[in-house]
TrEMBL record, chain A:
Organism: Megalurothrips usitatus (bean blossom thrips)
Family recorded in the similarity comment: Belongs to the activator 1 small subunits family.
UniProt keywords, alphabetically: DNA replication, Nucleus
Chain's role: Subunit of the replication factor C (RFC) complex which acts during elongation of primed DNA templates by DNA polymerases delta and epsilon, and is necessary for ATP-dependent loading of proliferating cell nuclear antigen (PCNA) onto primed DNA.
Superkingdom, natural source: Eukaryota
Subunit structure and binding partners: Subunit of the RFC complex, an heteropentameric complex consisting of a large subunit RFC1 and four small subunits RFC2, RFC3, RFC4 and RFC5; the RFC complex interacts with PCNA. Forms an heterotetrameric complex with RFC2, RFC4 and RFC5; this complex has ATPase activity but is not stimulated by PCNA. The heterotetramer of subunits RFC2, RFC3, RFC4 and RFC5 interacts with RAD17. Interacts with CNTD1; this interaction facilitates crossover formation.
Assigned GO CC terms: DNA replication factor C complex; nucleus
InterPro entries according to UniProt: AAA+_ATPase, DNA_pol3_clamp-load_cplx_C, DNA_Rep/Repair_Clamp_Loader, P-loop_NTPase
GO molecular function, one term: DNA binding
Pfam family, one: DNA_pol3_delta2
Protein name per its UniProtKB record: Replication factor C subunit 3
Single GO BP term: DNA strand elongation involved in DNA replication
Cell location: Nucleus
Automatic annotation (TrEMBL), chain B:
GO BP term, pick one: DNA replication
Similarity comment: family membership: Belongs to the activator 1 small subunits family. CTF18 subfamily.
Protein localization: Nucleus
Keywords from the named record: ATP-binding, Cell cycle, DNA replication, DNA-binding, Nucleotide-binding, Nucleus
Organism name: Megalurothrips usitatus
Claim: Nucleotide-binding is one of the keywords in the record: yes
InterPro entries in the cross-refs: AAA+_ATPase, ATPase_AAA_core, CTF18-RFC_complex, P-loop_NTPase, RFC_lid
Highest taxon above the source species: Eukaryota
Organism phylogeny: Eukaryota, Metazoa, Ecdysozoa, Arthropoda, Hexapoda
Molecular function terms, GO-annotated: ATP binding; ATP hydrolysis activity; DNA binding
Protein name: AAA+ ATPase domain-containing protein
Database matches in PANTHER family: P-LOOP CONTAINING NUCLEOSIDE TRIPHOSPHATE HYDROLASES SUPERFAMILY PROTEIN (PTHR46765:SF1)
Compositionally biased residues, Polar residues: 49-58, 855-876
Amino acid sequence: MSLWVDRYRPKSLGVLDYHKEQASQLKNLVKQGDFPHLLVYGPSGAGKKTRVTCLLRELYGPSVEKLRMESVSITTPSGKKLDVKTISSNYHIEVNPSDAGIYDRCVVMELVKNAAQTHQLDPSGQRDFKVVVLTEVDSLSVDAQHALRRTMEKYVATCRLILISNSTSRVIPAIRSRCLGVRVAAPTSDQIVSILQMVCKKEGLTLPLELAKKIVDKSERNLRLALLMCESCKVQETPLQDKQEPILPQWQVFLRETARTIMHEQSPKQLMEVRGRLYELLCHNIPIQMIFKGLLKELVSNCDMRLKAAVVEEAAFFEHRVHQGNKGIFHLEAFVAKFMCIYKKFMEDSVIDMF
Amino acid sequence: MDEDYPTPDEEFEMMYADEMEMLNEMEDDFDEPPLKPSAPPTVRRSLNFAGSSASQKDIISSTPSVSSTPAEKVDDLPITSTAPYASSSSSRKRTLDDIFGDIDDIELEEANEKDGHLSKKSCQKLSGDPLFFLDEDINAEPSDHVKEIELIEKINALRKKAFLECHQGQATGSPASLKLKESNTLTKGVPKWPFVSVTSELGDRVYIRVRSDDYLDEEIERVSHKTDSGGLLKNQFSTLKDEALKLLEKRQEAIVAAQEAEIAALMAPDGETSAGTDTDNLWVVKYKPSAYAELLSEESVNRTMLHWLKLWDKVVFNRERKVAVKPKEAKKENRFQKKPFGQVMTDELDEHGRPQYKMVLLCGPPGLGKTTLAHMVAKLAGYNVVEVNASDDRTPEAFHTQLQAATQMKAVMGKDPRPNCLVLDEIDGAPAASIETLIKFVLGKDVGKGRGKKKGNAGVLKRPVICICNDAYVPALRTLRQNAFVLHFPPTGSERLAFRLMTIARKQNIKTDMGAMLALCEKTQNDIRSCLSLLHYFKSQNKPVRLSDIHQSSVGQKDVQKGLFSVWQEVFQIRRSTGAFTEAATAAATKNTNSTPAVKRADTSIASRIQRVLSIVQSHGDYNRLAQGVFENYLNMKLRDSSLNGLVKGLDWFSTTDLLNTEILSSQNYILMPYMSYAFAVWHVLFAGLSWPKIQYPNTAYEVSVKEGHAKQTVAELMKGMPPSIKVNCSESQLVNEVLPLLLEIIVPNFRPVSQQLYSSQEKKDLCNLVSIMIDYNLTYVQERTPEGNYVCNLDPNIEEVVHFGGSKPSRALTYGTKQLVAREIDVEKMRRFEMMALSSQPNEPKDKIKSKSSENQLPSVDISSNGNSDTTGNKKSPPLPNHLRKLRAKPVLKEIQTKDFFGRIVEISLSPSTVKANTEAQLKGDVWFHFKEGFNNAVRKTIRIGDLL
C-alpha cells in the first residue's frame, strides 16, 4: 500500500511492460555471468532506475532488495568534511555524486574507488564482482568524470559501474567509450495508456480512454508523472470521469504564466516582473535548465513560424552560458530580454506590413 | 564691567580668549624677525599709552614697562628711537584689530600674566602717569636675575640723565612738584580720595588714585607744554625721521637687488642647478605654514583643536584658565558650549583637571594638513610634540612603552624642557590590540604590569593625545571613536588653496595663473601635499605652468576608493558639468589619441563619461558586487528604449561578466580581471540618466539563495526519513519536480467530517492508503500555533512551502480534525510497523541465544538424567525457557548421586519426559504467570503487545 508509482513498479526483467526486447537482452547479458560497465540513459520517467533494479535482482537474486542507507563521511583535500548518503545492499552500492556539489570528484576518488578496490565479502555470492550505481551522471563535473576513467579500467575485476544519466551529451567521450550504452526510451503514448489502464484495473477503477490520453499528453510521456497524475485524478473524483482535468505540477503552471507575461508586454517594467517570477522559480529549487526548457516550449508554441528558429537559437546560446557561468539569473534574464526584443520587432514589423 | 550679560562681542572674546591670547603670543614669536626693524612689540605696547598723552614730558616713564619685556630687546633699542615708529606700530595695531577685534586688553592681560605683575599696566592706564611705579618695580620685583637688576640700574641711570638734560635745557617745572603729585596718587594706606586697590605678587597692597578726566587733560597739557621744546631728543625729530627713511630705503633696495639676482639666476640657462639645490627640501616642508593664521584648514577645526589643547593647561602647566582672570564672567560663563560637530566639547574638567575628552581624533582624507595642524597647535600651546606614526613599532608592548615615555616623562636635556604632546599619526593602520592598549591607558584602566600600581596616580594620563587617521570608520578604531573627540576635517577651500599656491608660485618664480592653480586644486581634490608636489615637479621642468599642462599631466591624479553607492550612482547618473577638470581631461584625451587640436567638448561627452566611470569602478575593484548592484537596479532607471536593444546589449554584458568571473575564479586566471570593468562603461552609456537615481542595495540575490537553501534543506530532511526502497527510485530533483507537487494533491482524499467510527469501508481504505503513503514519504502532520493564537496542522517537513508558488493556497485541503486524525493514525501505524519488525526479528534472536546458553544453563534434572541416554535428545528438542522463567542457580556440584536399593543395586529413576515437557509448555502458553516469593515485587506479569491495544 503506497503510491501507485511504487506499488506497481515491476520487480524483475521478466515482467517489464515495455521495451521487452531490451529486457530480454539484458537478461541474456546477465546470464553470461559477466557484463561490462553500463551507461543507462534516457529521459526522466522512462524507467531507467526500474530497469537497473531489475537487472540487479536478476544478478544477485531477491536479497539485493534488502537495502540500507549509510552516510559516508568524506574529507576533501581542503579539509572540509562532507556527508554523502549511499544506499547499499550486500552486493551493490548506489551513490549520487552530485550531492557533494563541487566536491563530486572526491566522492569518485574516495568512495567509488574504495568500493571498487575491496573484493566481494561473501565468496558464496553468485558473482565475484559488485556493482556501483552512480546516478545523475550528467551533472557530474568534468574533473570527476576524468577521475572515473582510470577507476573503471583498473578495478574491472572486482566491480562494475552502472551509470545513470538523462542524456549522454554531458558524459565525456572517454567514459562513453568504456561503457555499454543502454538507452531507455520513454514509453509510447499507447504503452502509457495501457499501463495506466492496467493499474486502474488493479485498483478496481475504470479509466476512461479520454482521460488517459489527456494524462499522457500532459505528462509528456513521463510514466512516473502519468501515474502520479492518474492517482491525483482518482483522489479528486473517485469514479474517474472523461472531462476531468489532470493536475499539473504547480511550478509548470507558474512557468506557463511567466511565459504568458513575457508574451503579453515587452518593456523594462515587464522584464522586472518576469525577473521576480524567475527568482521565485529558482527559490523553489527548480533547475535552471528546466526553466529554460519550459519557457522556450511555451514561447515557441506562441510564436510565428519565422521566429521559432531564432528564439530556439537564442535559448540554446544562453542555456549554454548558464553552464559556463555561475549566476543563472543573468543568462535567464538575458534570454528573456532577447526574446522580448525579437518578438517586439517582429510584431512592429507585422503591424507596419499590414498598412 | 558691571554689565550682567556680556555683549556678543564680549562673548566671542571670552569664548576665544585663549586662542586670541595664543595668537598674539605667536604673533610676537613668529613675526618678530621681519618686524624687528620697524616696530618691536614691546615698544609698541608702551607707546600705546604714550599715544594718549601725545608727546611726553619724560619719555623714560615708558622704561618701566620695557623692563617687563625680555632684556635684550631693551638693550638693542635706543629709547630715543621710539617716537618715529609710533605711527607705524599703531597702524599695524589697527590691522591686527581689524583681524582679531579688540585685543588690547588681552594683550595686556597676557603680558601681565606672563610677568606676574598684575597691577602695573592698569595702574598706568588709570593714572596716566606711569612714573610712580618705578620704585615699586625695583622693590617688588624679586630680583633674582642679576641681569634684570643691572637693567634696572641702567634704566635708572638713563632716567637721571634725561632728567638732568631736561633741567639743563629748560628750567621749567620743578621735579619737586611732580614728586608731590606722585605721592598723592599712590599710597599704601587706605586713602581718602577715590582709588583703585592693587595687590602685587608679594601681597603688598597699594591704592592708586582715580582722577577725573578733566584732571587728566589738564595734566597732559601741562606735561606736553613742558616737553614741547623737543629737548628730549638729542637730534631733531625731522633729521631722525630722514635717517630712518634712508635706512629703510636702503634695506628695500638691498632686498630688491637680491630678488633680481635670484631671478637672474633662475632665468639663466644653468637654472637647473639652482632648482636642483632646493630639491633636498620638499616644498611641502618648505612652505609649511609657519603661523597659525597661515593654516589652510578650516578655521572652526583649528579653533576647536586649540581650545581643546588649552583645556589641558590646568593639569599640564598648573595654570588656571581665563576663568581666574575674569572671575565675574567666569561664574556665569564657565559652562558655555560650542557645538562644532556632532560631539559636544564641554569645558568641564574632571577631577584631575583634565578635559572631558582625553584624546582628539582628527580624521580626513590625506593631504589636508592634519599632521601640520596637530604639530602647529601643539607647539603653540607650548608643548613638545612627540610623534608616533606608522613607521614606528606599534605592537602593543612597544606602544605601551612609548605612551608611558611620552606622557609621564619629559626631556631633561635639551634647551626647551617643555611638556610633551603625543601625536599618534596614521593610527588607522595600527593593530587593534595597540589601540586597545591606548584606550586603556588613556582611560586610566591600565594597570601597567605592576609598575603602575606602585605610584597609584601614575596611570592617570596628564598629557594631551592627538590621534590622526584617514578613515575614522576602520573597525579597529571603533572604541577609540567613542572615547575621543572626533574632529572631521572638511576639505580645504579651493580658492584659498589656489591663492596660497599662487603665492608660492610667485616666490618660486613659476609663471602661472589663478585658473591653472584652481584646476590643479580640482585635480588633486584639494590635497595640499599633492598640489605642492605637482608644482614642484613643474618647477623642475622650468617652464610656465598653464592650464593645459595641468590637465595633460598624468601625475597628481588621486586614486580614491569610493563607496558602493556612490559608484552605482556614477554608473547610473550623467554628471552635469563637474568642473574644469573632467572637461579638460577629455580634451587632453582626445588630443592624445586623435592628435587633433583639443576642441573643448561638452562635459557630457561619451568619452569623458566612460573615462570617469572606468576610473571610479576600477578604483573600487569589487566588480562582482558592483555588477550585482547594477543588475538589480538598472530596470528601475528611466529607460527610453522602445526597441529593447539597449536592454539586450546590457544583459549580454551581464552574462559576459558572469562568464569572465567564473573563468577567473575557476582557473585563477586573474589576468582577465581588468576586462571586468568595461561592462560598467557599457551599462553607464546604456542606462545612465540625468536624474538622481534611486539605488537600492542588492539583496535579492542573497534572499533567493537563502530561500533556495531552505527549500533544499526541507527536501533533504524529507529524504532522510524515507525508507530506502522508496528512496532508491527518486532522486532529489525528481522529487521536487515531479513527485512532490502531485503528492500534495494525492494526500488529500475526501473524508466526510464525521467520526472515524462512522467511516465507510471505502473511506477506511483511503485512510489506510493515505497513512501508508505518508509514512513512505516521511510525512506527518504537526500541530503548530500561529501568531494569532490559532492552531493549525502543517506538514512536517513542510513541503508545501517548497511546492506552492507565490503564497497560493492549495485548492483542496483536509480539515483540521482530519489532519489530526491522520497524524494519530500515522503514529499508530508506525508503532505497529515497528512492532512487526521486532516480532519478525525475534524468532531468530532468542533461538541463537538459547542455543548458546542451553549448554551451561541446563537444569540439574537434565544433568541427572543425562545418564539416561534417551532423555538428552528429547530435552534438547523441548522449547527453550523464556527469560522470565529462568532462575539463577548455583552451579551444580557434579556428584554422582546414585540411589541404591537395599541390595546395593542401582535404582533407575524413571522421570517421564512427557510430564516435564507438558509442564514447561503449560508455563509458556499462559499469558499470565507469577513468581512466588522469588524477590520480585511485581509478582504477576502479563505480556501485552501494541497490537492488542490498538
